[in-house]
Amino acid sequence: MNAPGFNERYSRQIRLPRIGEKGQRKLVDSRIFIVGMGGLGSPVALYLAAAGVGHMTIADFDLVDESNLQRQIIHTQNDIGGLKAESAAHSLRQINPAIQVETLDYSLDQDDFTEQCATADLLIDCTDNFPTRFALNEVALKSGIPWVSGAAIRWEGQVTAFDPRHESSPCYQCLYPNPSMDSATCEMEGVVAPLVGIIGTMQAMEAVNILIGEGQLHGIVWLFDAQSMEWQKMVLPKNPRCPACGHA
């Protein structure tokens, strides 16, 4: 039986034939693990909480800094100096008190990722560094869990998904073969504020698609140029010689 207010709160989604009450129940019953509560994690978590994803574990060991507020919309002026995980959890509970939010406010290692992915239905990468992404890729492959990846810097962004449940799905190392590569950061290079909202919202949309069984992005990378306002679609085939997911 649906909880009081279920149909009213989610009525605009339930009206969609591809969601309906059955799909909405899938969202409410889902468990997701979001790594990073910064520029990407903010819109991802806010929209998925509003959409009714029932259990969210959010991880971030950083503190809210004034320079974050230009784009990390889940935090406010009053949160400066506090833990991002706790600040984000407060915002999510304000938006939807019916959901469960767990916080991990310390630096996670491979074992922590493995433990979280063992019980989650979906992993969402909202980090800003390659080492963490490669670590998440390894855990996702071993756990067989789908995950959504986003990146944004300067005026450029990209979003894709990987789903090891599909034999044809590539992995993150098919996209970036060199696991020792360095990455620029927003602190170093800068980033225009709405860009992370665009990419993060795309991640949230694909998360909903995957959770209701309609995932679209495995094998596809969308690239966005915020200056020209143009999207480019790149097909990403599985690399049979990939050291992470290939068979050769």
Please provide a written account of the structure:
By secondary structure, the protein is of the alpha/beta class. The protein has a single domain, classed as NAD(P)-binding Rossmann-like Domain (Rossmann fold, 3-Layer(aba) Sandwich), CATH 3.40.50. The protein has an 8-stranded mixed sheet, with helices on both faces. Helix 7 links the parallel strand 4 and strand 5. The N and C termini lie far apart (49 Å).
**SSE run:** HHHEHEHEHEHEEHHHEE
What is the overall shape?
A: globular
Number of strands: 8
Low-confidence stretches: none
CATH architecture: 3-Layer(aba) Sandwich
The CATH class is identified as Alpha Beta
Helix fraction, binned, reads 25-40%
Strand content: 15-25%
In CATH, the homologous superfamily goes by the name NAD(P)-binding Rossmann-like Domain
Q: What features would you highlight for this structure?
A:
Rossmann fold; 18% strand; 8 strands; 248 residues; eight-stranded mixed beta sheet; alpha/beta; 10 helices; globular
